[in-house]
Amino acid sequence: MKKRERKQRKRSISLGIVLFLMVGALSGCAKNAEQGEKNVVQDEKQETEAKETKGSEEVREITDMAGRTVKVPAEIDSVFSPKPTSAIYLYTLVPDKLLGWNYELNDIEKSVILDEYETLPNFGMGDSINYEAVIAEEPEIALNVGTINDAFISECDALSDSLGIPVVAVDGDLMAAPEAYRFMGDVLGAEEEAEKLAAYAEETFEDIAEMNVPEEEKIRIYYGNGEDSLETAPAGSEHAQIIDMIHAVNVADLEIGDGSRVQISAEQLLAWDPDVIVVNGEPKADMSGSSAADAILNNPDYASLKAVQEQKVYGTPNAPFSWGDRPISVNRLVGVRWLSGLIYPEYLNYDVDEEVCEFFKLFYHVDLTEKQLEQIYNGEITQSEHF
Q: What predicted TM-score, i.e. pTM, was given to this entire model?
């Protein structure tokens, strides 16, 4: 009897221990479940807060150079350029962010543009922009450079509607280049590089301003475009801006048309009889400035011109882009250096060759050799002699 009681007692104790352990386990599970729920809620809260914080950092509000309020990503990796003027600004400042070009680059342009960028896609410009192709590449913003006016603002707004991305307006006036670079540097996270380019532009303008050319010694210039060099840029137009800047006299004192260039006759050129003729050639026909200059020098119809008789007919260098205009972007900065040295060497306080080489290094990311510089001056650059 006592033995049976001892067994029952042991069973009772064992059962009690089991029940105690089960209650403890259930209690622990409940606590763990409660803690788990708390952790999930806390994680969701932290994730929400992180997203809100991240969202506030990803987008910021800026005022562009046209005075428009635009919301842009804080970090921008890809930028669409709707026209060549914008593409050149982007290539000089942030080539890695340039989505593509607006036309197929020619051999002269490819000779200077770095290999990894000369093969970027062509998205077209104006009415020929391939919007579907641009949208498919998912750029964060578009950057539009041009003359700040109501029409340009409307253009930016319409482009934004078509692409579904922010469009940032930048002042394309050459004298605004320092401000434009600093503005773009801030927007694109390239402040240090932008400051270098802005400083070069400012120094260029300062050097030109210090050229005290007497009124009676100012050179009269004709600037020609096209295969016959009879398309000119009137005084005061964007396309003739560097002539006005360097204290020269533009003989084409004409009313500025809608396109900023005017077609004239050979008789008009003969009547103006300029001291110096500078011609750009015709890029669309692969006609260089030097070829256009030779055509004038060897044309008997122009033999009486003072500039022809004194051999002062010059072709505008056009590597990688024209130094005169076409397009009217920051490629003209080096044209200011070149043209002022060409017609006013005695009034300069700088070495033209050194400044041209510095420009190519800063803006086109290329270190020129003496031979390459001479080839550029003479219009002898081809893609086969890639820099």
A: 0.83
